[in-house]
Amino acid sequence: MDGKLVRLRGYEKSDLDAVMRWINDEEVTELLGGEMVSAPVSSAAEERFIEGAAEPSPTRKIFVIESLAGSKYIGSIDWRAINWHSRNAGVGIVIGEKALWGKGYGSDAGAYAARIRQDESAPLVASCFRL
Question: What is the DSSP string of 36-65?
Fold first, then answer.
C-alpha cells in the first residue's frame, strides 16, 4: 500500500530495533499524550505491542509507516476505537524519525490511510487531535 512518500504495512518482529530508537525519546512521545506511552518502555514490552499489532481486531488497525526512499521504518499510524455502526474512529500518527518531521510523511500516511478506508464498503470518518 503506497502513498507518494510512504508505504503502509503490518508490523514485523524485525521492526523492534527501529521502534526502540525513538519510543523512549520524550520529544517524540510527548506528542502522543501522557497515557499513550509511559517511559521508559522496555524492548520486551514493545515486542508484546508488535505481536499484538499483528493480531486481527475489529476495533483497531495498526500499520507501520515506511519511507518509499530506502524502505525505512519511520513511524506508525492506527485507526482506534473503530465503531463500524456509526462509521467513525480515532486516528493516531507518529513519525518517530525526527529528521523527517515537517516533510509531509505523516500527512501522506494519513491521506493514504483515508483513501484506503474510502475504498472499503463501510468508510470511516476520523477524529484527529493535535496534542
Answer: T--SSPPHHHHHHHHHHHTS--SS-EEEEE
